[in-house]
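Aminotransferase
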Amino acid sequence: MSFLSATLSRVKPSPTIAMTAKAAELKAAGRDVIGLSAGEPDFDTPQNIKDAAIAAIAAGKTKYTAPDGIPELKQAVCTKMKRDHGLEYTPAQVSVGTGGKQTLYNALMATLNDGDEVIIPAPYWVSYPDMVLLAGGTPVEVETSLENNFKLTPAQLEAAITPNTKWFIFNSPSNPTGAGYGRDELKALTDVLMRHPHVWIMTDDMYEHLAYDGFEFCTPAQVEPRLYDRTLTCNGVSKAYAMTGWRIGYAAGPVELIAAMRKVQSQSTSNPCSVSQWAAVEALNGTQAFLAPNNEIFKRRRDLVVKMLSQIDGITCPTPEGAFYVYPSISGLIGKSSPAGTVIDSDQVFATALLEEADVAVVFGAAFGLSPNFRVSYATSDEALTEACARIQRFCAALT
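Structure:
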């Protein structure tokens, strides 16, 4: 009998972390690798947020806190939800975790039983299905299409719902595609959910502030207030505020669910870092003036990457509405061979060959549940993106 839990055999390590680690390994060996695999802004954390953390340390705010967040941060979340979405929450309806991933995981651990199904549109953030599996549930992956800009249709959602469906996980703008649902598109999905009162909605809004070309972000409970009592709205400070390493995520939802999530967290990690919590208070309550200029930089980078990748024969690269990813299709390259003799028979092989033969790290589409594609993170400098895309162009041009 294996010493390890049988549950662990149901999940796989994060492919994005694996690709980033492989790129770092080659770089340490002296290779000039350009990494486009990590979903992490290259901007520094804004100074006012860093100052708040320094002040918290100086004031001795370095002790244990309540298991799921200090009252000041919970109130800041409530204020943010009212300010940005018109949604009323009390601190008792807020949970703060060690990153957005923990809040999602806590909710699944607190609610899933054997046989419970969770609908996940594909492509999806790599962790969704595995978190469902760890919590004992069954992920139900619903493939979207490039032709529909990787957006789930109401008919697809309707067809995926069964009596066993417990959650629908919704992410807009999306990781990995950057696709964002407009209000009318989201309303069409919430209309379906209104017909199925046993289905709860877990919405991952991590990229809400990263939206371009006039795209206006909205969240399900905002679009359909009647879903408020069965929606968990999840978010965090990592992306828009360039605070990935601070590890603060949060969720707002019904009191009973939040209490259950608190119970899970109290017996696992307990409270998030106290200093990071005070920094997050400043992030949510302080100036938001840097968001717009940062978005302009991301938009410029997006346009650069889309333009250069769209020039490649065999690659189709749609223009996303938000986040900082593009998700090109390589359907026109399948079956070709690289100069080193690698036959490109999958997106995983393509990504591996691109790293080993062209020193560019991307993440293969199968990791996100939809092939043949790859994900590029354009959260890095214009210079690095230009050189990386030029390498991808040369690599693809050399395929025969």
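The two ends are 49 Å apart (CA to CA).
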